[in-house]
Amino acid sequence: MAPPNHAVPALLSVPRITTLLASLFVAIGSGTNYVFSAYSPQLAARLNISHTQLNIVGLAANVGVYSSGPFWGRIVDTRGPRIPLGFSFAFLFLGYTGIRHFYDAGVPEGSTVSSLSMALLIACSFMTGAGGNAGFTGAVNSTAKSFPDKARATTTGIVLSGFGLSAFFFSTLAHILFPGDTSSFLLLLSLGTALTTVLGFFLIRAIPLSAADISEHTVGTAAAADAETAIFHHSDDSETPLLDEEAAPAAGLAEEYVPDARGIELSPPRSPSRPAHSRSRSRSKKEEAIEGPNIYGRALWINPDFWLLFAILSMLSGTGLMYINNVGSMSQALFAKGNPAYDEVEASKWQATQVSTISIMNFSGRVVIGLVSDNVKNRLGWPRSYSLILVSSLFFCSQLLAAQIDDVTNLWKASVLVGFSYGTIFGLFPTVCIEFFGLSHFSENWGFLSLSPLVGGNLFSIAFGRNLDAHEPGETTATTAVAAVATITNAVKRALRVTAHQCLEGRSCYVSTLGITGTACFAAILLSALTAWRERRKLMAAGVGGAGRTRVIWEDTES
Hints:
Elements: H1 14-30, H2 36-47, H3 51-67, H4 69-79, H5 82-105, H6 115-146, H7 149-177, H8 182-203, H9 211-228, E1 239-242, H10 276-291, H11 298-301, H12 304-336, H13 344-378, H14 387-404, H15 411-437, H16 442-449, H17 453-470, H18 475-484, H19 490-498, H20 511-541, E2 552-555
Antiparallel strand pairs: 1-2
Helix pairs in contact: 1-6, 1-7, 1-8, 2-12, 3-6, 3-12, 3-17, 4-6, 4-16, 5-6, 5-8, 6-7, 7-8, 7-13, 7-15, 9-10, 9-20, 12-13, 12-15, 12-17, 12-20, 13-15, 14-15, 14-20, 15-16, 17-20
């Protein structure tokens, strides 16, 4: 039983705000995958591995994030956030400690890491991703269940924004405390990410919603559910749908049916004279109408909307992951082109600039899209899925812009647009997932949907690594370049030896990959338009126009 309304904390009460802030703090510690470019070139140089191998290490963290989603989601939905937060602490601490160990150990000059060491490094990277997602899933789920629909996209957007701000937070803190010290930076990641989950373990919990908040949400979602299933099946005259609020009958109304705030439905009122089979059928239909969609398990996998969202998220997130994991290498390639006085320290500054820019804009995108999608639904009465077209278009423009930049001083422009676009997809998709498939199994459903970045992320990132490796300078090219520069210093020579895998052709090192991701983003625009069109058809079939008219169900108390 849900507690009485007077015992349920208010919307802006201390318990809800505490959960929100603690969830934000955990999210900041969970999104450190985006800081990979801040140390990955140094890690590659220290271990003498290729760009393709480096991308495999980075992808292991992404695989850890997205493959573990259904597992953590199922636990959070059934057992709450504390178990995943405990695993998050262990995985983040062990993962970053292991990566730091490999960096500190390094390899002798002229050699590379063994196959076993490479496998262990990949395993450590996987743990950082799985651990980050464990904490993040618990934080987002608790926030989504603690706030009503009218504020859900905004509040979850705040938590999601913390995930995007993580790279900026840790890279800036490391720059202040340990400038140029990659080993200390990895130590900061190890301790800092683990400690955030300790705070969340004690402070994060789902706060029940009041009956009024639940009713406000369920009336608005009944119409969309009606479009998918035959809710108003008239086996007799005991149930009558009312399409307009003005036509409400004056008497004979049933007692209000209110779902439990924890997602466990209370039994609806029963008429003593109604046959048992009729009561059972009526309850099932009423649950769908009041609760909105509740799609999960096999029904999720055969739902066309799931596969549309899966494809869109795969292409967009894969594009973002490719850029985020490799922007450090991109900035170094642009900086090295035509620059005989290549300075690794100066190059790392441009590298850090891109990481911080992406992180800030990632944060901004998650907040902005939450506000935009909430206004689209609350003010215009349109479903949040309409915003998918905007998000896909932003990504497409980001790839066009990145393909045109041939100077490292201008790369920040592409990083701004990519970071903002990437933030919008992960600020929007969780609430669209709730809108399409329901809240009861949200974390599990979102976990399955989150498998999609594995497809695009692996494809685009490996393509980038192979593209960059194909443009590595050969021995003849390197010798000619050195001979042509008569004034090159010994320090520069040392830098060139450390960066033996450095491409010197600027934009040409990777522009072909941007052509692939740009095409994928354009396809995502088309699929987003198809998704919006399908959603509009559902609303029209349910008798809901652009203003989002509601449908109310009345049930006579007499048979």
